[in-house]
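User: Second chain of the day. Same drill as before.
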Amino acid sequence: MPRGKADARPGSTSRIQRGLERRAGWWDRILDVPVLWGAVAVVACTWLLLPRVGRQVPTWAPGDVAAFDVVVSRDLSLPDETATEALREEARSQVLPVYDLEPRLQFELADGIGTLFAACRSQLAENDALDSETLVASTVLRVQPIMVRVLSQAECGEAAERALQDMVARLYRQRIVDDRRGLEQRGERGVTLRDLATGNEHVVSLGELGDVLDLRSGVETTARTWLLEYDVIRRGWIKPIVDFLDANLSPNLVFNRAETAQRVRLAAAQVSERSQVFRRGQILVRRGDTVTPAVARTLSLMSAQRHELATFTSALGAGLVVLLMVIAWWRLLPFFGSSAEIAGRLSMIFLLMIACAAIDRVGLYVVSAVALNSQSDALSLVQTYLWGLPWATGSVVVALLLGLQPAVLFAVWGSVAAAILLGGDFSMLVFALASGLVGALAVQHYRERSLFTRIGAVVGATNVVVLAILLLYQGAPLEPASVSLAALFALLGGPLAVGSAGFLLPALEKAFGITTDQRLLELSNQNLPLLKRLSLEAPGTYQHSLTVGNLAEAGAEAVGANALLLRVCSYYHDLGKLVKPEYFVENQRGANPHDNLSPSMSALVIMSHVKEGLEIAGRHKLPLPIRQAIATHHGTKLIRFFYSRARDRSTREMGEVRESDYRYPGPKPRTKELGVLLLADAVEAAARTIDNPAPAKIQNMIDRIFTDALEDGQLDETELTFSELDKIANAFLWVLTNMYHHRVDYPGFDFNRRHARDSGPVRLGTKAVTTGG
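Assistant: Same format as last time:
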């Protein structure tokens, strides 16, 4: 058939397409500008996460005269920097100096002496005299020429070697330090002695260290004295040997300045910050009094705490973080949806970012107010309430509207927003991220709104587990009462987040034109007025729709399409037949109205059910996917029966019968789901025309329907491949063969034989059943 004829009657087609692409209201036109909403999201989220609220607290300098009384309006706990610094200084002073003991130096020097004497004896064995340069080159020790002469005079004897080895051992047992005076000054209260060989350390006093030798002064004197005790050492050798030892000895007790400084810093950092407590109604400074440095510092701290003032740099940093998230959405969201919907989806995400930031801001404001007005110590901590905020609301909503992958990215945004809002709180970032991810995962198998309670319990339980992990990680658990309250609020945070999502979901579905599985499940209820009306006014069409639903669902599952969407679309695809149900063969029980109409008029009546269906769907506010299914379930197919009848009746005077007049206005299906629906509708209608529907006949019918749709170009705009069409055909065959399966005859009954009307009643028990007719 000529392909060009399939696109005739552009006026009718355009009217249908205008109602299908997107709603054309002002709201949808705004949603189609995601750049606008991205910019609004950057500005609004930055402002919401770093707001400036409250009355200005005076920031008088020391020496100023107070212009009015400053009264504390609520109980405050402000950092006391003076007290904290005093405690830190005390903690620093308690840190003992760290000295490293290196026992390996003794063995290294002893090995060097052994190597030196071995080389010396080797030379004497080969020559009568020692070669000074060769001997010095054979060892890593510093050997002076005069020491070479001593070795030569001692003939490198083992007795001299043992004496030197013993001297080294005695000296290192005394412990050698490079600065004895510094050791005495630092170690007045003792030192931390760390053995580098074993890694053990312990605190010792100077007395326990013993007679420590100073490398610069004590070693020489001690060595001279001890060398006199060895008979093998001549007096003339003492000075060269002392110089040799002085050149090669290294201190084995060394002050570790870096480790000591690190411990000092750690001790200061572990000091908890001290606070000043101000009670409500307390007068901080009276009018006319001179502002002291302490009062000026307190006013400055009150201003910073009360107003949560954001500096330019912090606001810029938060804005850049929000901008990065907007860019991430722009780059990643196209992977999770069709290009036709991406603009509206992006705008929706940006608006949700703003909404969730606002929810977080309002939640923080509320819990702060509650904590500040609470009389209980446990309930006066803002941190206790933060675990109960609905951090998972945004990711749950996105999971229901767009799916799991976008919801995971939104959970990341929610955690980042929580961290910015709370001043970079790492624990709250982890908590909000875990809550959002679990919420997104929990709704994946959600099919009924009544299951929201169960999902809320799952998120709440996860919140409690993550809270416990974070408290253990921080290593500073709160009081039992505070921990219990935090766990309770964390548990309640799950139902609160999921309940908030359930409250927002219907409004968001309508505002953004998204059809969720939950909305589809509601529309699949056969007791809804529209479907009930279809079953009563057009029962044949109703049964046809149910069967098409079975076929379409099986075909969708075979190719990984949205089976639930197809089933619901099948229920509503022929709504237009409610206007004139008697003009469609499945609803006819008597005369055929088309017998009195011309073929062209009959074709117009048949085609009108598409337009009538769209009008009914519009009045009942059915979602866009269902309206698309109504418009495309025939594509631009040819109404062959009336086209053939028109050609048979045509005469030369009437002119040529145009094929375009007998084609549906379209548009053609553009998705896998709509392509499957078109095939299922045609296959179901054709199956009812088969006498004795054996599997071979059904298979042949399916092949012909699929081939005709392909040749007619009805599937050109879908994403269906030939392999997927094979899977769909097999799924259709399986459904139809099970529908038309063979059953054995009932014994004693022959339902295929026509009985006489006057055969009389047949009694079953006490009731009479008339056979025949």
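The mean pLDDT is 80.

User: Great, on to the next one.
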